[in-house]
Amino acid sequence: MGFKIKNGRNGWGLTALCIALAMGCAACRTARPEGIEASKGHAATPAAHFSQDSAYAFVARQVAFGPRTPGSAAHDRCADYLYAVLNDCADTVIRQPFTAERWDGKAMQGVNLVACFAPQNPRRVLLAAHWDSRPYADQEADSTLHRTPIDGANDGASGVGVLLEAARVLAAHAPAVGVDIVLFDLEDAGRPDFIPYTPGDENTWCKGSQHWAAHPHTPGYTAAYGILLDMVGNRQPMFAQEATSLYYAADILDKVWGVAAESGYGAVFVPNRTGGIIDDHLFVNRLARIPMIDIIHKDFGTPTGFFPQWHTLQDNMAQIDPNTLGIVGKTVLETLYRE
Ligand SMILES: [Zn+2]
Asked: How far apart are CA 170 and CA 86, in angstroms?
């Protein structure tokens, strides 16, 4: 995030899917990383089937490709991996390639991935995260590291890991609403801090959401609301009510924060209000006019307001706490299952 301020299934396909689900959802079992079991015990609600360990494994798998920066082999391989996982669980998955201009005028190739659940359902909820990682460790104290790409375990992979595990649960337990999971590319290639600010730099971030909001995967696409996940994996998480989310979608903030409080996560989803940030939800709200909130960690103890390892080489798997992924995943899913 930035700085402050195939195969649509027809009716027979769905029937086949239902049979597969009755037999234990073989397709999605393959999507879960090896060695990870589903949540055990009798679930009071389908959201309880969200496995924090599975989500953690999905984060680790992305990071293992290496930094997912535009133009890298890791970027291409990770896109194929994400498509394959989503394709195991969703009714339809769409690759949306695009070209975007970098802060220095160079062309970047990106690809958004869109996974649709129950695409015929007119009432829809949009879930999103960015899957690219930052090409610049520009918050490192050592300036010789500023052009080194980062793992983006928390800033990027954490939100995607939660959504991949959510996709697995949604495939097995359909909510009353249709769901679209959008993984945005090129969110984090914005102007680095070592280059002086120029007006309009805000638009150098969030290229994938800017493209998708102007060219949605389905013409005229809309959703009742959206939830963006960014930096949702670190230890001692705190999610505050961010100003852009409040401005565009206060009722959705209330809904999600209410679910979190009822789930026992009121100490994590706090009522504090914080300043607006440039993130994908800004462009979805502005350009696609879908009310969207951002669930993003707020650190009141750092100068940046983000987690201490933000945009450094230490944003790696050591920062990721499965428990945090579980809190976020269960809150988002419980919100969907209450619709
Ligand atoms: Zn970032």
From this structure: 11
Q: If residue 92 lies in a helix (H) or strand (E), which one and from where to where?
A: strand 92-101
* Percent above pLDDT 90 for the chain: 86
The number of CA neighbours under 13 Å toward the Cβ of 126 is: 30
pTM, full prediction = 0.89
**CA dist., res. 154 & res. 144, Å (int):** 23
Residue whose entry in the numeric block shows the structure tokens 């975007």 = 100
CA of 175 to the centre of ligand 1 (A): 31
Q: Closest Cα to residue 188, out of 102, 287, 81?
A: 102
Closest CA to 229 of 309, 154, 283, 174: 154
Q: How far apart are CA 145 and CA 313, in angstroms?
A: 8
**Quick one: average pLDDT of 301-326?**
97
* CA of 311 relative to ligand 1 center, distance in Å: 6
Ligand 1: distance of its center to the CA of 154 in Å? 9
CATH code for the domain defined by 11-35+48-337: 3.40.630.10
What spacing in Å lies between the alpha carbon of 231 and ligand 1's midpoint?
Answer: 9
> What is the predicted pLDDT for the residue at 41?
40
Q: Determine the pLDDT at residue 252.
A: 98
Ligand 1 mean position, distance from CA 122 (Å) = 33
pLDDT band, residue 29 (cuts 50/70/90): very low
Cα 30–chain centre separation: 21
Q: How far is the CA of 1 from the centre of ligand 1 (A)?
A: 3
Distance CA 286, CA 144 (A): 37
Cα 190 to ligand 1 centroid, rounded to whole Å: 9
| Rounded-to-integer distance, Cα 69 and Cα 132, Å | 6
Q: Rounded to the nearest whole angstrom, what is the distance from the C-alpha of residue 217 to the centroid of ligand 1?
A: 25
Cα-to-centroid distance, 206 and ligand 1 (Å): 10
For ligand 1, the distance from its centroid to the CA atom of residue 128, given in whole angstroms, is 15
Q: Determine the distance separating the centroid of ligand 1 and the alpha carbon of 277, expressed in angstroms.
A: 11
